[in-house]
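RETRY 2/3 - previous attempt timed out on the joint model. Re-submitting the same 226-residue input unchanged.
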Amino acid sequence: GEDVEQSLFLSVREGDSSVINCTYTDSSSTYLYWYKQEPGAGLQLLTYIFSNMDMKQDQRLTVLLNKKDKHLSLRIADTQTGDSAIYFCAERWGGYQKVTFGTGTKLQVIP
Amino acid sequence: GAVVSQHPSRVICKSGTSVKIECRSLDFQATTMFWYRQFPKQSLMLMATSNEGSKATYEQGVEKDKFLINHASLTLSTLTVTSAHPEDSSFYICSARLDLNEKLFFGSGTQLSVL
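RETRY 2/3 succeeded.
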């Protein structure tokens, strides 16, 4: 739970798929989250996955979890300009007591 | 990477008492800190933006007198929940931003339960 790493920046063309990656360290993680932050706004919960799941799909969003490698990814299909934002992954661990956030990936969508 | 320490991680208090939550940036100076509140399975709601040496900016609907924020130094911001009631029970989390940098570093959160 001490360290959650994300790539800093991702640039994609409109209509392409985006994949944002995240690695975490705590094997006792219970939930893993993806948040979106638009400029000047708070964090919006996009989706979450329980640690005993491998995949979760929600419309254009697909979350993949590789628990063995402690790797989480968020795939956004048909990326739109409105998807431009900073995306944070987070893990809940320590018996629900702690949350660790990654430092965010800035997604830039080029029209 | 930069570390933000939040304390306590969990607190249980009686209705009517006040609770103070601390947020410290351990290895960097944070001119701006943010306080969020999260209800179960909901998004983090921004409560206020705390700027060192000045009054906090509260989001609409957040009671200033209820949630007192003090950012007395570049490494410490505190949130005091005054006269807590059961409806104040929630998960509170702070974040700090490096000056001239968009990256946010988060504390590990405080679960407040008011009996």
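Chain A has a mean pLDDT of 87. Closing ticket.
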